[in-house]
Every structure is written in C-alpha cells, then in structure tokens.
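B., you asked whether I could sanity-check this one before it goes into the benchmark set. Here's the sequence:
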Amino acid sequence: MPAHARIRQMLDLYVVTHPEATHHLEHRVGGWYDSELTPAGLVHAGLIADALTQRIEDRTEVAVFTSDLTRTWQTAVSIGERLDREPVSMCELREKSYGEGEGRPDAWFRERFIPPPAIGERMDHDEGLAGAETKLEWVRRVYRGMDQITSAPPRTTIVVTHGGSASPVIAHWLRIPWDSLDYASFGVGAGSITHLREDDHFHNRTLVELNDTTHLRRD
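And here's what the prediction gave me:
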C-alpha cells in the first residue's frame, strides 16, 4: 500500500494529575514523599476515571502510564479498572525531587527554599535543599520517560502524574525543546485532566483543553 494511502489516525494524550493526597491536608511538601490519596481523593479518582471513560470512544488502543508514587498509582488503577488496562509504572513521571525537603512542613520549606532568579540561570539553579533535583535534572528525567511513552504511541495515551511534572509532560507532547522550559509552565490543579491531540492530516499537536476539573464537581 502506498504511504499516502495508509489509514491515518488522530493521536490523543490525556494528562491526569492525581487528586487530593494526605500531604495536601497535612501541609507537607510532596515531591518524592510517598503520600496516599485521601478518602476524598479516592472518590475523585473514580470521577476522573468516569470522565475519561466517557471521552474515549475507541478503547481498543489505549495505554495508561503513571508515576510510581502511591498517590498517582492509586489514581491510575482506578482509571485502568474502567478501561480494562493495567497501568505501566514509571519513576520518570515522578514529581520533582525536593531532597531533604520532602515530607517536611510547608513552613519549614518556605524558610529554606531559594527561588530561581527572574533573569539568569534558572534551569540549573541551586534551590538550597540538599539532595534536591535541579529543574534541569527534573525536566530531562520527565522527557526521557515521555520519549519512551511516545516512541510507538497507541491511539489514546493516558499519563498520570503530578501538578509540577504535568508541565514537562505537556511540553514534550508539543515538541517544545527541554532547554526552552526555563520559564514555561502550565497551571494545573489536583485531579485535573488536560487533553492534547495530534491531528491526522497536518500532524500538528494541539493543546485542546487545559486543567479541566469539571468532573470533580459531580460528587
């Protein structure tokens, strides 16, 4: 069959951020701190799964990838149960590591955290926390994971991650070079769904919907 005659298909990516976790209520730093979903978070995970089930018409080509931390895994399992898919756990999709700050009270963190400068070195900036990833290390890690995920994508891919790591996941899909993320950020809240798509003609990649949380109001 000639290349131009092959059947094309649109590709959809849904980026899901985990809903409410225990570190939110305890006012602790997340990062790699392995918190669990709260009872409300578990309910919201079910609502996220319901919303995705309604959006995805063809479930024959669906893959679910998730950060390996408990709060994201719990969210992905809820989605996988609805779509009859076993989530694939990936450490590359974790939130940024805050080193010694993980699990610490937010007040402790704010006293020690050194924000990046408005102008100057932002990607390899030292935030003042021992053992923490720089933004450069974090973004490159997430991009490595997304390289694996998108190497042979099915028609629909679901990535379950964290509020911070959603930005490099989205940027990777839009083919923004990782070294251009010194300022770029996509604002998403807990329990959100972001929809991206590659069309089947021009192969443009579009941010269809950012930070949808309307499904969480159904409870």
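One thing to flag: Strands lie at 11-17, 62-67, 88-90, 156-161, 193-198, 205-212. Otherwise nothing jumped out at me.
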